Amino acid sequence: MAFQIEQIVLRKIRMPLVHFFETSFGRTYERKMVLVEVRAGGVSGWGEVTCGENPFYNEEWTDSAWLILKDYVAPRVIGHPFGSAAEVAARTAHIRGHHMAQGGLEVACWDLEARQAGVPLWKQIGGGARNEIPCGVSIGIQDSVPQLLEKIRVEVEAGYQRIKMKIKPGWDVDVIREVRREFPSIKLMADANSAYTLADIDRLKRLDEFYLMMIEQPLAHDEIIDHVPLQAALQTPICLDECIRTAHQAAQAIRMKACGIINIKLGRVGGFTEAKKVHDVCQAAGIPVWCGGMLEAGIGRAHNVALATLPNFVLPGDVSASKRYWKQDIIQPAVETTPHGTIVKRDGPGFGYELDMDFIKHITEQEDVLR
To answer: How would you class 260 by CB atoms within 10 Å of its CB: exposed for 0-12, middle for 13-18, buried for 19 or more?
Structure first.
């Protein structure tokens, strides 16, 4: 459906987490995020920029995303006639990197197009393979093993179908052994967030004894090639995350046998258009995918639900209930899970939830209207 963006509203918000979240590169107590609203013909579409507050996951951070959107992305899309949302990514593709900033606007355009057509976002992107999304949770590094075990117990009792625990050198083999002793039959995976090198290959091979679903991104954030000998040495599948930013890179990794699974994050690949291409490459090769999370607020979470209705999202992803992260979310109702650990897709126009504009205004620290 054709549209022409008349205005873009950028909002920088701040939301405290219910509990800190720690990975191999630090501990997060609150999220600062950029919301993107695109307006055309009296209709608004919404996106969320998923980068972190610091350039640790990748080169992007909240303040850089604001500048890229304001100075480079917005001027290239405002007033430009688009035949469909699928054309938006190509309009800014010559901007090197900064996929999360570009993706925040790209997904907003898909939401706009779906609302103009009066259809759910999942239908607009070609999803709908399942009515309920299987959900897992991501549990950060804790202050103690008993604290970790208690958090896992809470999530298992809540019905979540998969547990992902963050690891790093010194918080890996012995900790996973304790988890497996306490929870011998749960679906368990480990996320290293690039904390290891090939020098750690013997240590990583010790994880094979715990029958993990996968080890996510054990080596450097931009490394594909070194994952080849590591995967060959492991029985446990490697899942690639940070180093897969395009469908071409996914195809390279699969061809080299660098992994057995790929995690797709909307922001990391720059939005729905590229995410669908990565999905299709993996599906054609028989490589399962799942939807990764970046501590999203409600808009980003709802977009992830839509993405995960595509057919090759056969593994439980990081999409979970709002209450795990936020006392109050920016959408109404908050995202909730069923007792059997799923999220039911929404059938309303766009991403399917109402915005809590009063709360968004309350937590907005900076706003800019671009025409």
So the answer is: middle
Alpha carbon 137 to its chain centroid, in Å, reads 12
Split at pLDDT 50, 70, 90, the class of 142 is: very high
DSSP characters over 154-178: HHHHTT-SEEEEE-BTTBSHHHHHH
- Domain extents for the chain? 3-119+354-366, 124-344
Q: Tens digit of pLDDT for each residue in 50-103?
A: 999 999 999 999 999 999 999 999 999 999 999 999 999 999 999 999 999 999
The answer to whether the beta carbons of residues 95 and 68 sit under 8 Å apart is: yes
Assess whether pLDDT exceeds 80 at residue 24: no
Partner residues linked to 259 by β-bridges: none
Sequential DSSP letters for 88-110: HHHHTTTS-S-HHHHHHHHHHHH
- As a whole number of Å, the CA-based R_g of the chain is 20
- Spatial CA neighbour of 3 closest among 69, 63, 78, 93: 78
- Joined together, the tokens standing for residue 190 give 């480990």
Fold of 3-119+354-366: Enolase-like; domain 1 (3.30.390)
Tell me which amino acid residue 98 is. H
Q: What is the maximal distance between C-alpha atoms in the chain? A: 59
Each residue of 290-304: pLDDT tens digit?
Answer: 999 999 999 999 999
- Of 12, 32, 164, 166, which residue is the catalytic one? 166
**Rounded Cα distance, 21 and 138, in Å:** 9
164 is catalytic: no
Burial class (CB in 10 A: 0-12, 13-18, 19+), 54: middle
Q: H or E element: which one contains 33? A: strand 26-40
For 124-344, CATH gives: 3.20.20.120
Q: Is 166 a catalytic site residue?
A: yes
